[in-house]
Amino acid sequence: MSKRKPADVSRRGFLKTSAAAAVAGSLATPVVHAAGGDTLKIALVGCGGRGTGAAANALKADSNVKLVALCDVFEDQAQNSLKSLKAEVPDKVAVTPDHIFTGFDGYKAAIDAADVVVLGTSPAFRPIHFAYAVDKGKHVFMEKPHATDVAGAKAVIETAKKAQQKGLCVVGGFCYRYDPFKRETVKRIHGGQIGDVTSIHTTFLTGELWDRSGKSKSRDPQDMEYQMRMWYYFTWLSGDFLVEQAIHNVDKATWVMGDEMPESAIGMGGREVRTDKKWGNIFDNFTVVYEYASGAKVHLQCRQIPGCYSDNNDYIYGTKGSALLMRHSIKAGGTEWKHPGEHNFGLMYQKEHDELFAAIRSGKPINDGVRSAMSTLVGIMGREAAYTGQKITWKKLLGSQQSLLPKEFAWGQNPVAPVAVPGKTKFV
After folding, report:
1. What is the pLDDT of residues 222-235, one digit of tens each?
2. Could you give the CA distance from residue 50 to residue 150 in angstroms, rounded to a whole number?
């Protein structure tokens, strides 16, 4: 595996990079298929439920596209995905048996066969697959998050910059940013309708998730096949659920804060019900407080425990009023604004791909790569604050070369890091 180079991910560097991205997007010439008559060939790498759903969205986003390749480390996953996609968009699936790839290196052949790549594997592999796709000149849709460790997020930032230079389109799966109702609400917040944002309370309080341990031939959590089947429950593969799922909350808060990075984070969390070794080494609850240079704070609560109160909301408070982002409403100056339309929750998943393919066709590249990787870093920052029980500053985060990946991707034994213990676990 190639050595990852550091990226400029300071708060100032982020804004500078974003401005450069805008210029690059306006000047760059797309590498392939700007013409409306060309058939765009799509490859799906990572054939789980989210990857399959993203591929279906991609196939519906443009009238002249074909799915030509699939890759998953497990053949049964690839076959199930193919069956599902044939049922949903039969006229756009053109995957022959010799274009179904498996194993840890199958992604290369799948990417080579396509013009546009959908990356839907567990996020540990995102930096590697993204780098290969951009090196090969492919447009990319990649699901959130974009890494599970600091080194991976930095690598994604470097690759995103290369994509900008090549004029490639990159869309990240932070789908709420593509929701028209939330765009309008955030636009009003940024326009000063609630004044300066002083506090955000964002919640992702849900129940338990899936258990796929029965699909694994091995019942040993130290076995690579078991970990790949149960990927969500191993930090090196998922980033823990703060980084894998509650990252949407992190990204929405980051969006509202104008993509400014927090100065520091403190946090707590643990395993209340995921106590058996079958559940890998992730937590089931987190509470994190991010603090910004202005003194504003983001309070994040996330939990995955059955039988508890559920809440998935973003409560935003400003000097002149407040907003509920998930409800698309604002209260300020004695009046209330609420988006007048009928909200379609699923639209944002399709709109990500609609805008990606429109950009490819128009020759006006869009690139979420740097911004999405920055949100991923903010999620990692919160996780490490909870894992260690220490205050993690942005400066300390950027100084880290943390990598959670194994030395090699191979079947057999793969030792698992112990469950983090606040006050004992160290941030490297």
Report:
1. 999 999 999 999 99
2. 24
- The C-alpha atoms of residue 155 and residue 128 are separated, in whole angstroms, by 9
The tokens describing 131, both together, are 């780098």
DSSP conformation class of 413: B
Region of poorest pLDDT, from 1-15, 41-55, 118-132, 297-311: 1-15
| pTM flag (> 0.90) | yes
Alpha helices (runs of H) in 167-234, residue ranges in sequence order: 180-190, 224-229
Q: If residue 142 lies in a helix (H) or strand (E), which one and from where to where?
A: strand 139-142
Residues 6+ apart with CB under 8 A from 184: 328, 339
Helix (H, G, I), strand (E, B) or coil at 86: helix
The DSSP symbol for 97 reads G
Distance (Å, rounded) from C-alpha 244 to C-alpha 112?
28
H helix or E strand, kind and range, residue 75? helix 75-88
Spell out the domain ranges in the chain.
11-177+349-371
pLDDT on residue 2: 35
Strands 116-119 and 40-45: parallel
Please give the pLDDT value at position 163: 98
| Cα(140)–Cα(367) distance, integer angstroms | 9
- In the DSSP assignment, the letter for residue 26 is H
Q: What number of other Cβ atoms are within 10 A of residue 256's Cβ?
A: 25
pLDDT band at 36 (very low <50, low <70, confident <90, very high): low
Average pLDDT, the chain: 93
Tens digits of per-residue pLDDT, 60-73?
A: 999 999 999 999 99
Select from 37, 375, 370, 364 the least CA-distant residue to 169.
364
- Please report the pLDDT score of residue 134 as a whole number: 98
Q: What pLDDT is recorded for position 21?
A: 41
φ, ψ for residue 129, nearest 5 deg: -65, -40
Contact indicator for 19, 32 with CB cutoff of 8 Å: no
Cis peptide upstream of residue 221 (ω within 30 degrees of 0): no
- Is residue 329 within 8 A of residue 337, CB to CB? The reply is yes
pLDDT of residue 30: 43
Distance, CA of 373 to CA of 9 (rounded, Å): 10
CATH superfamily of 11-177+349-371: NAD(P)-binding Rossmann-like Domain (3.40.50.720)
Distance CA(297)–CA(315), nearest Å, equals 12
